[in-house]
Amino acid sequence: MDSPSRRSVPEEQGGMSTHFFLKWPAYLFIAASTFLLLVGYFAVRGCIGLFESFMEGHNVRKLRSKMIRAGNYREWQALARKLDSQSGLDSWKQTRRSRYYNCDSIEKYTRELQAARSLNDPIRMLACLQSCINDPLTSGVLREELYSQCWDGTKTVVEEYVQSVVMGICYLRNTINSPPPDMSADTLHSLSREIRSFIDKSSSYGRTGLCLSGGAALGQQHLGVIKSLRQEGVLPQIISGTSAGAVIGAFVCTRTEEELERDFNSVYLQSISTALNDSWFTRVTRFFRIGQMFDFNDWLEKIPPWTCGDLTFIEAYRKTGRILNISTTANNGSVNLNYITSPNVLVRSAVLCSSAMPFFVKPPKLLEKDPQTGEIIFREAQSFSDGSLAGDVPRGELGSLFGVRFVLTSQVNPHISPFFFNRKGEAGNPLLWRWGKSGSFRGGFILSALESFFKEQMKTLLKVMHDLEIDPAFRGMALPQAFLQNFEGDITVTSNRHFLWKCMRCLESPRDKTEMEWWIKEGELMMWPKMSVMISRMRIERALTELSQVSDGGTHKSISF
């Protein structure tokens, strides 16, 4: 998201002005008001947490403790399903109706898809798929709200519908791959042409992108998110990273599957996580000497192990097939680097630019590799700084360049994650207590209303501060800008477990293999509750991708979920 350019009011008006005299009093008033609202906000969140803990019940608490200790997603899922059964949530799964979709349409399409497959009728199957995938009455089946009423999965009617759609697409793929003996060449050609038309019309379904936020050492939790997605075979092809997320994104997108299998272990990851190794005495001394806490040249040497050396964006794409996006900040706002916009830029250079937080390391310039000679030169452009300042989640750029319509965001920024609060529960984490019908609010209506009030008032004050240009900017970093941009996706995974300890370690490299394993496990615990939504989404997307490849005469690799 591009941020509006800042202007200097006194410079434009030439001399003293009302803005000049009232800027600091107004800033102090808004800052004090925001602080009081912040205290009230965390007091309300604390009350909600106490209520939920009190109403949780011994059996639920015991099972949730086992879920935290689960060794993998399948183990976690088995415990979640047991918790659903004990909590009486299985009955909700059997209900048909929901405000997010038309249940009659869902059931009709499920029957028609099953009938077309049993009759071995590809023409009928294609017609049904064209209708159901583009029907607005069924578009809500992948909303997170449908997965927020239980610990695992969603309504049975939705799961049956998704399964029927996937099997229908796979049926068409198999028909093109191995046509029946009685199908004529003209019929097969016509079917292939209709399938290509269907793929084009299904572009509204879009592609899935994974956005990895900034967060310094907290970004190591992204490794757990990546690990769990890979284990379930649902890691998106399009990955965007900002600051710490850029480091993790580059690690994944510059390695083949074989290299990831080799390098994705806590011993190797801890050995290359050395950027924050300097002592605090060294940091403070360096800050007073040059105005930065970390040495630019030192970081430049420590990044290549994460990026497989001097790969460019286009080389990384050709090597792995994954699309890496790295978000940085320039004077005019957010800049998204990838193999289309910056094909010859070195990935390690982009990672350093995206991580150049003011007061941490000086803003560098991008490095490019000449595609003919291989010579590495500085790009003739301005310097860049930390991407979290303006474009932590570059959803617009991903959509316009790569057709991304669904975004999974791993959000670990310590100044943002504490404010994520789903007042009616979230996928894999339903309401722990209910008064009346299942649509109750977390902590009850009054506490949820207060939570919303305090948070929205703080955002309003920060926006006023930014609009009136009374917020002090330090080396281009304005406080409101770091809070008011978009930090969410269609699904956002975050965690406030052990939050204070994480903040204390946010500027420290992991000390040993055990600490790295802990960070990775925290990331897995972030992702597992929302894995069922991602699996449903990616099953359909992967099936459509394979069908597109087959219809174009390419090869495919069968999906397995």
Structural summary, described in words:
With 561 residues, the protein is an alpha/beta fold. The chain is built from 24 helices and eleven strands.
Describe this protein with a few key phrases:
seven-stranded mixed β-sheet; disordered N terminus; 8% strand; two-stranded antiparallel sheet; 561 residues; alpha/beta; 52% helix; 24 helices
Rg value: 25 Å
User: What structural class should be given to the helix and strand makeup?
Assistant: alpha/beta
Stretches where pLDDT is under 50 for at least 5 consecutive residues are 1-14, 434-439, 555-561
Relative helix content: 40-55%
Average pLDDT value?
Answer: 87
- Report on the biggest sheet: 7 strands, mixed
Shape: globular
Q: How many DSSP H or I helices?
A: 24
How much β-strand is present in the residues?
5-15%
Per DSSP E runs of 2 or more residues, the count of β-strands stands at 11
Distance between the termini: 35 Å
Give the structure's gist in a few sentences.
With 561 residues, the chain is α/β, with parallel strands linked by helices.
Topology of this protein?
Blueprint: H1 9-13, H2 18-55, H3 58-68, H4 73-86, H5 90-94, H6 103-118, H7 122-133, H8 156-177, H9 185-201, E1 207-212, H10 221-231, E2 238-242, H11 244-253, H12 257-263, H13 266-272, H14 280-290, H15 296-302, H16 304-307, H17 313-320, E3 323-330, E4 333-337, H18 347-354, E5 367-369, E6 376-378, E7 385-386, H19 395-402, E8 404-410, H20 444-467, E9 473-474, E10 477-478, H21 481-484, E11 491-493, H22 499-504, H23 513-527, H24 531-551
Parallel strand pairs: 1-2, 1-8, 2-3, 8-11
Antiparallel strand pairs: 3-4, 3-7, 5-6, 9-10
